[in-house]
């Protein structure tokens, strides 16, 4: 993100939010009437975690931050932000249904989804190993973000992250 000193001073810069501070800052920049632009050819380097456990925690915090941002900026929550939470809720209900009612249709849909992800990534990267890791990364991302989103709504939605 590149900004002028004027924008930084008039918006107060980054907030003390632990997560989502960049999105909060961007929203406040636009609310202050400053123009923003996306430079499609610019390179952006973003640190990602190097194991699935820490990646889960990172995206879990992102899900929590989305709710904190919604409290701070009520119009910022969009339908797309609910999708990982719906993924988690659907998977949980499918597991409960399979365990208690022997209904496996829901689990079958999730299995088909991950087989398609694996096959597509395998084709794209020409590696079955990367195909499997891509599907697993997708599962970790959806589950972590969705759980963080749900947890923040249910247990401490008024606290800002």
General form: globular
- In percent, how helical is the residue content? 55-70%
Indicate the proportion of strand residues: under 5%
Gap from first CA to last CA: 21 Å
* SS summary, helix count: 6
Structural class: mainly alpha
The whole-number mean of residue pLDDT values reads: 92
Q: Please tell me how large the radius of gyration is.
A: 19 Å
Main β sheet profile: none
Number of domains: 2
Could you tell me the number of beta strands?
0
Instruction: Name the helix and strand elements from N-terminus to C-terminus, one letter apiece.
Output: HHHHHH
Report the uncertain regions: none
Which terms would index this structure?
globular, mainly alpha, 161 residues, 2 domains
